[in-house]
Design goal:
Length: 416
């Protein structure tokens, strides 16, 4: 193996070992506190619910560890094991060449990868989620969602892949800059189109009918200076018992969406407080900052790919004997997470910082105590652990730990 091969293997092994270590820490910490509800939650979360959350976390961690090892072996198979090279050889042997041959190679690798990962998706949905009472999906609905996703990949993905490959072949040394412009425009277009064109393919969205709740929400929106194309309730219960709320879209195509499960779980003032938190992300420009960061990181990534594409060692070090545009794209997409994994804590820190800022905004526009009550209910209903391992949480969690967040909200409520 080449020097780059060893560097890749070392990063892959280090990342895999770190994932397994963090998962074990999470399991040990959650199970160590399984027998007692943390004091701030003792009056609101029963011991039975607390133990369910611990067991749910443990079950997900067990499956996650198996998936981590499985994914590492698959990645080795695709790269050093010659999987990508084999697919390219099969496509060339079929007589399909040029742009269409390159597209076929990429699609075949992506489809086979999805198929090989399918057992874990099934185990999560019909195993863990069903065992803990969260799954509402049927095998038919599961297959339908998968086929819709495949159709979207073909309809939207194939033209995008074709355009990027054409740019790589014909746009000269600065192809990566033109590809970034195309990729960014496509991403922004999808972000704009998602609420009205893509999401309805998978879920039903009905206008909020509760008149008093709708009036409360509209008053909050006016107070916050937020304009949307509507307030909708999504049939989240069709697939899962988990509850959530979000707003999506950009420009004049923004939507506010409540899961039907959340509407049934929370009181009106609590729904308002949850929405105020989501609006906090908007008013604090968190969505804009995340979009800008995504655009910058993709620019850096494509610039790096622009250089790697010309380096033969990049291909041979990852099991591909000859350079090609499709191999460059596939290899970069597959190995980028290996080399960026240890930046996860930084991303998680920024996300938690945004959550605290959104909570503070919610406290200024609604009721911090009501938001704390809503979160406790959601922790309970979603079986979210109240006792995560601090290191695991710092590495992965996009939201502050339950105890830290509730204490922060209580402090805001007392200040108000």
């Amino acid at each position: 193996m080449s020097a780059f091969s060893w560097i890749f293997v070392i990063f892959l092994l280090a990342g895999t070992a770190c994932r397994l270590w963090l998962s074990n820490r999470q399991t040990r910490n959650v199970r160590a506190h399984r027998s007692q509800v943390p004091e701030p939650f003792a009056q609101k979360v029963s011991l039975e619910d607390h133990q369910k959350a611990a067991d749910y976390t443990h079950a997900k961690a067990q499956l996650g560890r198996m998936e981590t090892l499985y994914d590492a072996m698959l990645l080795l198979g695709w790269t050093l094991g010659g999987g990508i090279a084999l697919v390219q050889s099969l496509v060339q042997g079929s007589g399909l060449g040029g742009l269409w041959g390159a597209i076929a190679s990429i699609l075949l690798v992506l489809l086979v990868s999805s198929a090989l990962s399918l057992p874990f998706s099934i185990a999560h949905t019909f195993g863990i989620e069903a065992r803990f009472g969260f799954n509402r999906s049927t095998p038919g609905l599961f297959v339908a969602d998968m086929l819709k996703g495949l159709a979207l990949t073909l309809v939207l993905g194939v033209p995008l892949i074709a355009a990027v490959l054409w740019i790589m072949a014909h746009a000269g040394e600065l192809w990566w800059l033109y590809a970034w412009a195309l990729w960014s425009g496509f991403g922004l277009l999808m972000f704009w189109a998602y609420p009205t064109l893509i999401a309805p393919l998978f879920n039903k969205f009905e206008p909020l009918e509760d008149a008093s709740l709708k009036q409360r929400v509209e008053t909050l929106l006016e107070r916050c200076g937020f304009h949307s194309k509507g307030i909708f309730v999504m049939d989240g219960s069709r697939r899962s018992a988990h509850g959530n709320a979000y707003f999506t879209g950009i420009g004049n195509n923004k939507r506010i969406v409540f899961f039907d499960t959340l509407i049934k779980t929370l009181e009106p003032l609590e729904v308002e407080a949850v929405l105020a938190h989501e609006l906090g992300h908007f008013r604090k420009r968190h969505v804009r900052k995340r979009i800008i960061w995504s655009l910058l990181s993709s620019l850096i990534g494509l610039a790096l790919l622009g250089w790697l594409k010309t380096q033969l060692w990049f291909y041979t070090g990852l099991g591909v004997p000859a350079a090609s545009d499709q191999a460059a794209l596939l290899l970069f997409i597959m190995i980028a997470p290996v080399f960026t994994y240890f930046f996860s804590p930084l991303s998680a820190w920024f996300s938690r910082k945004h959550e605290f800022e959104a909570d503070a905004y919610a406290a200024s526009q609604s009721d911090a105590g009501a938001l704390a009550e809503a979160l406790v209910k959601l922790y309970r209903e979603n079986a979210s652990t109240l006792t995560p391992d601090p290191v695991h949480s710092a590495f992965y969690d996009s939201h502050p730990p339950a105890l830290t967040r509730i204490q922060h909200l209580n402090g805001l409520a007392n200040s108000a």
